[in-house]
Specification:
By secondary structure, the chain is α/β, with parallel strands linked by helices. Strands 19, 20, 21, 22, 23, 24, 25, 26 and 27 form a 9-stranded mixed β-sheet that branches.
């Protein structure tokens, strides 16, 4: 695989500007992965698993913690069966006459409504008739008088019947629950089409603990008081209506049949029922839409805003002791009347031993009765929280839009600016969500869109990182056999240095060919010849790569290489010259090894000799070829000249021939001018040189003496002073031998030319240019 093909692979893969990639398609590369991730996250959002929901409600908890509901009015008072009341009145449960006395005193102070956060499911054991049957030593007359007394339950029922009292009831799992035939019917009505579908949009319980019939039938209203906590035990949403009864029967299409029968099993929450009784309404109206579920409740003139499953979002205030009145103060007649008159009263308990303790977003320990108080205050003071019906769709669309924006822009602008985009998007989502909560009491989820954006940023950034790593590996794989390891690492660290597509650069080109290879190849079969070529090409390649060169291609026994592309190399001419000198030295070692092998195999050893041409200048480097196939290579007149100079090395009897530009760009090397020559394919003459050694060799006295004499020889040659030329040639032979150089072929060439010119003078107009007839 050539360097050009490797570069073509890279170009087809992505293009080479890794920091700002030009994507061929919105559905390609990391974007495709981003789209898949976004699709998965959107599906998860639709499914809405418990962890996602929990994260959302925790965010809404944080909002309440940052801005709890401010108390500007106290329309609700809690009659608290607290620890002090238990100490002074006695342990719970109190007898019903005490409860009746408590209720009677409250009604005398004219509250709007009284609600019980308590249920009376069994007859009072302290009733006179029950005591009469258990006390020993009573006469029949005494037992009869006691039995004739009204029970405590009847006493309480009579008080309940006198005022606007809402009794409490509690849901509980029961396998055999049946609504008693004489039980008061539900005060819940449903307004909407296809009412049978309401059972798919409502909380369901299989049973309920009711008050005993004598009390249950006395009250004008009754409501469920035990709010359901969520997965983490926090009470955030309370159903305002529930279905409590047997599983409804359904037809083959899954629709509830005889919905009128089952609608009577709808039971209101305590707070909702208290509002109904307080306003004097005969029923509360559930607004239902089959497409969106329950949209809220109309209770008198009050609208209770709920979600699609009839749950209200409770907006809590901090635990407010000022709204509490101890039950014992009511019984003692010491309660301030203004605490009761015109208020909605809730009778409940804060005593820890009675186990009615809840957790709210604001308070880890909160009396359960205060949950209902907060709901009532939300409705009466206009501070209801709500999650709009469009919230789900809005959040879904915003998540999709923000995700697509991130997918489109991140590969274009890079991770740094995409991080700024992420901050803007996430910050905007959070700010908008908070604004809606703070000013409109609306709940929009900023977390899932934000997490989606962050997840996409991480995925796309990692994908780009992985892609760049893959490209770096591909760079290493593609160029490690054609460039030096140091250059490969530099290119892998910053692949943008590899610019494909064609550009003009000042470069140095090298051609190296084995002389007499046809004769040598006749000694080997195909496999043996392949091994021989590899034995030659491998060390030559290493020499070039070690000196920052790039292998362009192998052409049989010929090597083409260049410097200063794809990476910059300011010393490209000098590095090329050092490579040529090192190749000469390396060939000596190769020939020693080949000679030893030839002796072992009993065949003739023909040494490998090379000719090397070097030239520097402006060339075009980049993709060369067609749309189907192209190579990373070089084109230009200076490339052709380098090839011609390699061919002239045999003509002049030297190993390395370099052009004048190379000589100028790499001064200090041991260089002798060869000739002013017009190579084949060129109309203008070029000055060519032979490279004989490095800077140290050039500074030596033997070479300096040779160079002085050699330059004098060329000067006489161009003046057609043939006798002086012959004298200088003789001196040059001696000086070359003293310097350890074999330049016999070069000086034989000039001797032959002089002999020819003596017979046929080049003429007075001759400019010293030799026209080469061969490549």
């Amino acid at each position: 695989m050539s360097t050009g093909r490797a570069a073509a692979v890279l170009n087809r893969f992505k293009g080479i500007r890794f920091k700002r990639p030009r994507w061929r398609s919105i559905f390609g590369g990391a974007r495709l992965l981003g789209l898949v991730v976004l699709l998965v996250l959107l599906v998860v959002r639709v499914i809405n698993p418990a962890p996602v929901e929990l994260l959302r409600v925790k965010t809404f908890d944080l909002y309440q913690q940052l801005k709890p509901r401010q108390i500007v009015d106290r329309p609700v008072t809690i009659i608290d069966i607290d620890e002090r009341s238990l100490r002074e009145i006695g342990q719970w449960p109190w007898d019903r006459r005490t409860i009746a006395e408590l209720l009677s005193r409250l009604l005398a102070l004219q509250p709007f409504v009284v609600g019980f956060d308590i249920v009376f499911p069994e007859p009072d054991r302290m009733s006179a008739a029950l005591i009469a049957n258990t006390l020993p030593g009573l006469s029949e007359e005494e037992r009869a008088r006691l039995a004739a007394l009204p029970s405590n339950d009847h006493v309480l029922a009579e008080v309940v019947a006198k005022g606007p009292v809402v009794l409490g009831q509690s849901t509980r799992h029961m396998d055999d629950y049946v609504l008693p035939a004489d039980a008061p019917r539900s005060s819940v009505a449903v307004r909407g089409r296809e009412n049978h579908l309401i059972f798919d949009h409502i909380e369901i319980s299989s049973g309920m603990v009711r008050n005993i019939p004598v009390i249950d039938n006395a009250g004008p209203g009754r409501g469920i008081f035990n709010p359901n906590s969520e997965v983490d035990g926090v009470v955030r949403r309370v159903p305002m209506v529930m279905y409590v009864g047997p599983e409804p029967t359904r037809n083959a299409q899954g629709q509830v049949t005889d919905e009128a029968t089952y609608l009577q099993y709808l039971q209101p929450a305590l707070a909702a029922e208290m509002l109904r009784v307080a306003t004097g309404a005969r029923s509360m109206m559930v607004q239902f839409n089959p497409a969106t579920g329950i949209n809220g409740f109309v209770v008198g003139r009050n609208l209770i805003q709920t979600d699609s499953r009839s749950r209200v979002w409770v907006y809590y205030s901090r635990h407010d002791k000022a709204k509490y009145v101890s039950a014992v103060d009511v019984l003692n007649g010491t309660v301030p009347p203004e605490k009761i008159a015109g208020k909605l009263l809730l009778i409940g308990t804060s005593a820890v031993g009675l186990l009615d303790i809840r957790t709210s977003p604001l308070d880890p320990v909160l009396p359960g009765v205060e949950v209902h108080a907060n709901i009532l205050e939300n409705v009466l003071t206009g501070t209801q929280l709500s999650r709009p019906g469009v919230a789900e769709n809005t959040e879904f669309l915003l998540t999709a839009a923000a995700g697509l924006l991130m997918i489109i822009l991140l590969p274009l602008v890079g991770a740094r600016y995409a991080l700024l985009l992420l901050v803007v998007l996430v910050g905007s989502a959070g700010a908008a969500s908070w604004w809606y909560f703070d000013t409109q009491l609306l709940l929009y989820d900023p977390v899932y869109p934000a997490l989606t954006i962050i997840a996409l940023y991480m995925v796309l950034t990692y994908a780009n990182y992985a892609r760049e790593e893959a490209q770096r590996r591909q760079v290493r794989d593609a160029f490690s056999r054609y460039m030096s390891p140091a250059l490969v690492e530099r290119l892998a660290a910053d692949p943008s240095q590899l610019k494909l597509g064609g550009e003009m650069r000042d470069m140095t080109l090298l051609f190296c060919d084995v002389r007499g290879f046809t004769t040598i190849s006749e000694q080997f079969d195909a496999q043996g010849l392949t091994r021989l070529i590899n034995r030659f090409l491998t060390p030559m390649t290493n020499v070039i790569l070690d000196r920052k060169g790039t292998i362009d291609k192998y052409m049989g026994d010929c090597i083409m290489a260049f410097w200063n592309a794809p990476l910059d190399d300011d010393a490209h001419a000098a590095n090329a010259c050092r490579s040529a000198l090192a190749m000469i030295d390396t060939m000596k070692d190769v020939n020693v090894a080949l000679e030893a092998e030839a002796k072992e195999e009993g065949r003739k050893h023909i040494p490998l000799n090379v000719g090397i041409g070097l030239n520097s200048g402006q060339v075009c480097v980049g993709n060369m070829g067609s749309d189907q196939r192209f190579d990373y290579s070089v084109l230009g007149d200076n490339v052709n000249l380098a090839s011609r100079l390699e061919g002239q090395s045999k003509t002049y009897g030297v190993t390395v021939v370099i052009g004048e530009n190379t000589h100028v760009e790499a001064p200090g090397f041991a260089v002798l001018e060869l000739d002013l020559i017009k190579v084949k394919g060129k109309t203008l003459p070029v000055r060519i040189f032979t490279l004989l050694g490095d800077e140290a060799f050039a500074a030596g006295a033997p070479f300096q003496a040779l160079k002085e004499e050699h330059d004098a020889m060329l000067a006489a040659y161009r003046l057609q002073e043939w006798d002086d030329v012959e004298r200088h040639i003789a001196a040059c032979r001696t000086l070359a031998a003293n310097a350890g150089l074999d330049l016999g072929g070069l000086y034989d060439l000039y001797a032959e030319r002089i002999a020819a010119y003596r017979e046929a003078s080049p003429g007075a107009e001759w400019d010293g240019v030799f026209v080469a007839l061969s490549k």
